[in-house]
Amino acid sequence: MKKNEKAKTKTTNSNIEVKHDRQHPRLSRIEGQVRGVEKMIDAERNCLEIVHQISAIINALRRVQNDMLRDHLTALGEAIIAGNLSPQERREMADELAALFKQLS
Description:
70% of the residues lie in helices and 8% in strands. By secondary structure, the protein is mainly alpha-helical. A two-stranded antiparallel sheet has the order 1-2.
């Protein structure tokens, strides 16, 4: 695959499929922001300016994280409503989500 080609990003858990293609441009921007912070450090820019940029990067990553989690929860809800998950799969997904929420808090 060439550098500029992006593979279709999808995550499959049980019978749940979630596409994350729209995250690629956002992650590319974040990557550029990180390179910018490196340049700021090399240029010995003001510490507070650097900290401000790092905060912007962290917030951008949180938005990506929140969007991916929202998309996953939406797909999970749709799969449950459609009856595509067995009771065991629903329990496993609930346990997985509980562990994730605990980790995020």
